[in-house]
Amino acid sequence: MQDRLQAVKAQVQAALDRAIAALPPGELRDAMAYACTGGKRVRAFLVMESARLHGVADDAALPVAAAVEALHAYSLVHDDLPAMDDDDLRRGLPTVHVKWSEATAILAGDALQTLAFGLLADPAVGDPAARVRLVAAFAQAVGGAGMVWGQALDIAAETAAAPLTLDQITQLQGGKTGALIRFAALAGPLIADADPAPLAAYADAVGLAFQIADDILDVTGNEDVTGKRVGKDVAAGKATFVSLLGLDGARAEAARLIAAADAALVPYGPRAGNLRHLARFVIERDT
Amino acid sequence: MQDRLQAVKAQVQAALDRAIAALPPGELRDAMAYACTGGKRVRAFLVMESARLHGVADDAALPVAAAVEALHAYSLVHDDLPAMDDDDLRRGLPTVHVKWSEATAILAGDALQTLAFGLLADPAVGDPAARVRLVAAFAQAVGGAGMVWGQALDIAAETAAAPLTLDQITQLQGGKTGALIRFAALAGPLIADADPAPLAAYADAVGLAFQIADDILDVTGNEDVTGKRVGKDVAAGKATFVSLLGLDGARAEAARLIAAADAALVPYGPRAGNLRHLARFVIERDT
């Protein structure tokens, strides 16, 4: 899997660089390029593997992978703003509003969301019907009931009287991080107009495991390795999977989810080996 | 024209209300609905008339009109933020970040952009090819080289050593307000896959006249009537069409542009009467 992940990283970075280089030069473009540099590219990898499993060529899937990463980058830039999570460090570097300004961070995030939708409309992806299916599903994954909604719940939870319950956190994360991971995993079925059920089940398990692993890293992680601030949730008295389940309980739940993700991949047989490895990588990473 | 404008206002408001009502309840949804209430709906009207001229039914054009107004609403919510233009009044009411919070304003703007792209993918609009043409053109109108880019130039101009020249302001406004007006005017040709040239020329003239009228209103307007702060540009020492051309010069330029808009509509004959009236309305309005 690591070879394929490295190849996808290079491909998607090149695709993002090309798309951003086509924009007018200036601070806004610089900030967009900066926000799109680095990262694990787990979402791009999901797109590319989902596409491969459905007979979609890498060249067709690549704009979709780039769209998902551009969207993810926008969400990080806006989430890091002072009015939101107020983070000054991301991927080991100053966040966009620290390096430039809040105005530039707001505009760069806005333009990255736009760029993402534009990439989905790229003729290389497939026929118009395939592209419009992607646009509609993407709008669902991001919009009011998806990622943005999860982030709004997260912000609201900070001032709520009582810490969130396990059900509430699961629901919140299903929007905040789960919806985009699900979209990425469904890219293949969406382009090929195939049954999305197996990969939807896989994505829901992996997405939740991913968030549990993030909560574990916030407790056990090293800032020099993760490249972002750690210990923030504990300091803020925020309910997390670790605070609710304990460290061992959270690890056990993540392992159970990875087993569920494996089971969901059975219909694909050995061709889904990379996705099986990815599920493991998600909970074993240190960044 | 006024009857049709009132009808479009009611139709597009209903379409926006329906789309927003489908989202999960809460502060984010309330803020989105609030931001989408009121306004002149000039952009929606352009979409509906452009569609009618190309034989596109009102029901097909309506999601596109709603998309353009949702996008416009997002741009106002983000532009009003303290880090941007720092406005506390809009359409006679407190701006979203004043009424709720900066975090809610950022998220509501983000979700309104997403909603706009989702509306363009509505099957009611037309076949997938038509919808994907709209998505691609919309991404161009909003993205790095369109509206967001114009806003970035506007923010940069505030701290620039010298005031902008007439050419620079024309270019800036061509992005900031012109690109979305152009998209709206091209909705008909985009859906029907027809020649966009006449309406593109019309939109470029009307878009610039619209901005000149805004600059004139900032000098001559009444806050109680416009529903937004006036005199801000003069107070900030900002270069505007009025500061560069004088009040009479700006009025003459707006009139010249309206004549150019009229000329561009010749190929459509008398059927373009509403668009001719709209061009006049744009420079004669007091709000």
TrEMBL record, chains A, B:
Family matches, as PROSITE patterns: POLYPRENYL_SYNTHASE_1, POLYPRENYL_SYNTHASE_2
Enzyme class: transferase
Keywords from the named record: Isoprene biosynthesis, Magnesium, Metal-binding, Transferase
Listed Pfam families: polyprenyl_synt
InterPro entries: Isoprenoid_synthase_dom_sf, Polyprenyl_synt, Polyprenyl_synt_CS, Prenyl_diphosphate_synthase
Record-listed E.C. numbers: 2.5.1.-
GO-annotated molecular function: transferase activity
Gene3D superfamilies per record: Farnesyl Diphosphate Synthase (1.10.600.10)
Co-factor requirement: Mg(2+)
The family this protein is said to belong to: Belongs to the FPP/GGPP synthase family.
UniProt cross-references to PANTHER family, sorted A to Z: FARNESYL DIPHOSPHATE SYNTHASE
NCBIfam families reported for this sequence: FPPsyn (NF045485)
Protein's name in the database: Polyprenyl synthetase family protein
Organism field: Paracoccus fontiphilus
Taxonomic classification: Bacteria, Pseudomonadati, Pseudomonadota, Alphaproteobacteria, Rhodobacterales
